[in-house]
From TrEMBL:
It comes from the Bacteria. It comes from Streptomyces hoynatensis. Pfam families: adh_short_C2 (PF13561). Residues 1-171 form the Ketoreductase domain. SUPFAM superfamilies: NAD(P)-binding Rossmann-fold domains. This is SDR family oxidoreductase. Belongs to the short-chain dehydrogenases/reductases (SDR) family.
Amino acid sequence: MVTGGNRGIGLAIARALADEGHRVAVTHRGGPPPEGLLAVRCDVTEPATVESAFAEVEREFGPVEILVSNAGITRDMLVLEMEDKDFHEVLETNLVGAFRMARRALPGMLRARWGRLVFVSSAIAAVGGPGQASYAASKAALTGFARSLAWELGRRGITANVVAPGPIETDMSAAVSEARRDWAMQTTPLGRMGRPGDVASAVRFLTGEEAHYITGAVLPVSGGFGMGA
């Protein structure tokens, strides 16, 4: 199950997992559902829709064994201009939404004594950025959340890891100013944007048997952006 899986990074992840033979469901909120995948409507900020999405997926496929929490939003602005609701909206989607999805997926994973949790964070979480206080805070918090889950669930055969993309060519990055994009390229050793498929490859690895001994890890897919932070 991939949240926010109807476009960009989420869709690339869903397609990559489907190519591995998994039965994949994606959640979508406003955009059109992708072809060839089970698409369920879900707003991770609304507990009732989280429950209905899981119920639908479980009817079609059975318990969720792999959860990729990818749904996220930005409300970029300077802190002095930010209202409480702006900050809360970002945390509610990016952090609390991930918590809700993980909590709902866990009973099935615990019964199976196997599961994979992957949280899509951001390289900006490690370095911060002007106007991105709420986004960076929400994404940084996913690391603490995943590592706590790693401790809680490791002996039950469940891993919890984080993927931290850097500058990736998506609709979200296309909306960034030219000056911001130039700064990102200047601070990325590879000097170019990544592709959604690059992130999908990292998620595919973390959800596969090759990564059975990896948990509580943060895997950057950033072209070196923010390395060492």
